[in-house]
Design a protein that fits this description.
It is a single chain. This protein has 294 residues and is of the alpha/beta class. 52% of the residues lie in helices and 13% in strands. It is built from twelve helices and nine strands. The chain has helices at 17-28, 42-50, 61-64, 80-87, 105-114, 159-171, 181-207, 212-218, 221-226, 234-243, 245-268, 271-293; strands at 7-13, 32-38, 56-57, 70-73, 96-99, 122-123, 125-127, 148-151, 175-178. Strands 3-2-1-4-5-6 form a six-stranded parallel beta sheet, with helices on both faces. A three-stranded mixed beta sheet has the order 7-8-9, covered by helices on one side. Helix 2 (42-50) links the parallel strand 2 (32-38) and strand 3 (56-57). Helix 4 runs parallel beside helix 5 and helix 7 crosses helix 11 (245-268). The longest helix is centred in the middle third of the chain and has 27 residues, at 181-207. The radius of gyration is 21 Å and the shape is elongated.
């Protein structure tokens, strides 16, 4: 049975989908006594307070963490360095810090540079539980239930901090696994970051056409299902693309090569090649989904 911890004061920096759902899940599990929210806009903070996601809102992240027991940094990855630099002088010596970023090597580098002596209590994390919606209105306590949360601890990561962070994510309902940070970024460039870029690019390719209104008017489930994730936060995905640039460029190169093979087969009128490609894709998809159900 997973270990349980009780957090006295939880500080959530970024009260949107990831941070808000984290707070709600821990409240539902009765694993936290008091939640303080920090955010960029009064509207989001007011909404988080009104929905009971947080019990208190504080504008200054440094002041918010002064007596914190656990801190989640759930901002877009492009803002994490600034946040870490602002909270480092005020973190108490026992506070455990984790994050919800989709890239890990860059976040770890920021933490190592900005957190100073508190770096040993930073446990890098990536919850695999996003949706195409964002903001406090999208937060819900079941977001992490049955989903994976990947931890990428470093050699300096303290055993106590790792134990507490693991237990906290498990109390959100998540299945916690560990990965090397470089391997994590390569994997998610291929299976998460690339699909989002493709979805954004496909919508833009259609929207730029002079007959875009007609195209979208006649579109059905195929397009809707393919581009669902293009409804995700542009700011978040801009930051992810830049933070994981090297791995994402490699994934894009592989995808472009596959598109080139499809295009060449269409140009040749090679039905056998097209059929084989599509059958291979369908079989791979079936194996993937079968494996997920087991």
């Amino acid at each position: 049975m997973p270990a349980k911890v009780k957090i006295g004061k939880l500080v959530v920096i970024g009260v949107g989908l990831i941070g808000g759902s984290f707070a709600l899940a821990l409240k539902k599990a009765r694993a936290v006594r008091h939640v303080v929210g920090v955010g960029r806009t009064r509207r989001n903070l007011a909404l988080a307070l009104g929905r009971g996601i947080v019990d208190e809102v504080v504008a200054d992240p440094g002041r918010a963490v002064r007596d914190a027991d656990f801190v989640l940094v759930a901002t877009p990855v492009g803002q994490m360095a600034e946040v870490m630099a602002r909270i480092a002088p005020d973190l108490p010596p026992h506070a455990v810090i984790t994050d919800g970023g989709s890239t890990k090597q860059d976040v770890i580098a920021h933490a190592r540079r900005c957190l100073g002596e508190h770096y040993v209590r930073f446990v890098p994390a990536h919850p695999i539980a996003g949706t195409e919606t964002s903001g406090p209105a999208a937060a819900h306590p079941a977001l992490y239930r049955g989903k994976s949360v990947i931890l990428t601890p470093q050699p300096e990561t303290g055993a106590r901090a790792l134990r507490i962070a693991r237990a906290v994510w498990q109390q959100c309902g998540a299945r916690v696994v560990r990965l090397d940070a470089r391997e994590h970024d390569a994997i998610f460039a291929a299976v998460s970051h690339l699909p989002h870029v493709v979805a954004f690019a496909l919508v833009n390719a259609l929207a730029r056409r002079p007959d875009a209104r007609k195209l979208f008017g006649f579109s059905g489930g195929g397009l809707r299902d393919t581009v669902r994730i293009a409804g995700s936060s542009p700011e978040m995905w801009r930051d992810i693309c830049l933070a994981n640039r090297e791995a994402l460029l490699a994934a894009l190169e592989g995808y472009a090569a596959e598109l080139g093979r499809v295009r060449a087969a269409i140009e040749r009128g090679d039905g056998a090649a097209l059929g084989a490609m599509f059958e291979n894709a369908r079989a791979a998809r079936s194996r993937w989904l079968l494996g997920k159900r087991r």
